[in-house]
């Protein structure tokens, strides 16, 4: 039975956020402006709740998210994303550290690719993964957004 997939777009201090839901969990979050998505554009309790939690996060009032998430990806990608959710607010890890955490110490590039494919930005905090030397490296929303998110979390020991 197909799920009721919908999306809605919300204004935020970082731009327009697109939130996608399958009716049971959030399946996608992007901050990339208005986009055409082949699903029903309609707010739901889930998209509204996700937008509320993100708004609280942006205001510095929330450090963890409570909404159910259901990212679609390979088994390895999902293991990386689950590991990313264990990185506490205000902390960072290197790609190598994340690779070690998932039990694949030589899979730094694969971790980077899993980060790149992360469908649920911010709630699955791929922005907390930085270069081994503390430098900012790739982010789907651009390095400026990554830096703003890290600054929001008061992470100062990064190199631009």
How would you sum up this structure, described in words?
By secondary structure, the protein is α/β, with parallel strands linked by helices. It folds into two domains: 6-58, no CATH class; 75-152, Arc Repressor Mutant, subunit A (Orthogonal Bundle). The chain has five helices and six strands. It has helices at residues 45-58, 75-84, 95-101, 108-116, 143-152; strands at residues 6-12, 15-21, 26-31, 40-41, 93-94, 129-130. Strands 3-2-1-4 form a four-stranded mixed sheet, covered by helices on one side. Strands 5-6 form a two-stranded parallel sheet. The N and C termini lie far apart (47 Å). The mean pLDDT is 88.
> Based on helices, strands and strand pairing, what is the structural class?
alpha/beta
* CATH class call of the largest domain: Mainly Alpha
Shape: globular
Q: What's the CATH H-level superfamily name of the largest domain?
A: Winged helix-like DNA-binding domain superfamily/Winged helix DNA-binding domain
Low-confidence stretches: none
Summarize the SSE layout with pairings.
Layout: E1 6-12, E2 15-21, E3 26-31, E4 40-41, H1 45-58, H2 75-84, E5 93-94, H3 95-101, H4 108-116, E6 129-130, H5 143-152
Parallel strand pairs: 1-4, 5-6
Antiparallel strand pairs: 1-2, 2-3
Helix pairs in contact: 2-4, 3-4
Question: What are its keywords?
Answer:
2 domains; globular; two-stranded parallel ribbon; Arc Repressor Mutant, subunit A; 160 residues; four-stranded mixed beta sheet; 16% strand
What's the short version?
This protein has 2 domains: 6-58, no CATH class; 75-152, Arc Repressor Mutant, subunit A. It contains 5 helices and 6 strands; from the N terminus they run E-E-E-E-H-H-E-H-H-E-H.
């Amino acid at each position: 039975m197909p799920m009721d997939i919908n999306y809605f777009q919300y204004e935020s201090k970082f731009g327009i956020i697109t939130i996608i839901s399958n009716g049971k969990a959030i399946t996608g979050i992007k901050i990339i402006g208005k986009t055409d998505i082949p699903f029903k554009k309609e707010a739901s309790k889930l998209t509204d709740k996700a937008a509320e939690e993100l708004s609280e996060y942006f205001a510095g009032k929330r450090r963890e998210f409570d909404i159910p998430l259901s990212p679609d990806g390979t088994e390895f990608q999902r293991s990386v994303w689950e590991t990313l959710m264990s990185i506490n607010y205000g902390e960072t890890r290197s790609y190598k550290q994340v690779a070690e955490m998932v039990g694949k110490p030589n899979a730094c590039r694969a971790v980077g690719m899993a980060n790149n494919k992360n469908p649920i930005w911010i709630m699955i905090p791929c922005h907390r993964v930085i270069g081994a030397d503390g430098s900012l490296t790739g982010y789907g929303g651009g390095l400026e957004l990554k830096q703003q998110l890290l600054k929001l979390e008061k992470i100062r020991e990064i190199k631009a």
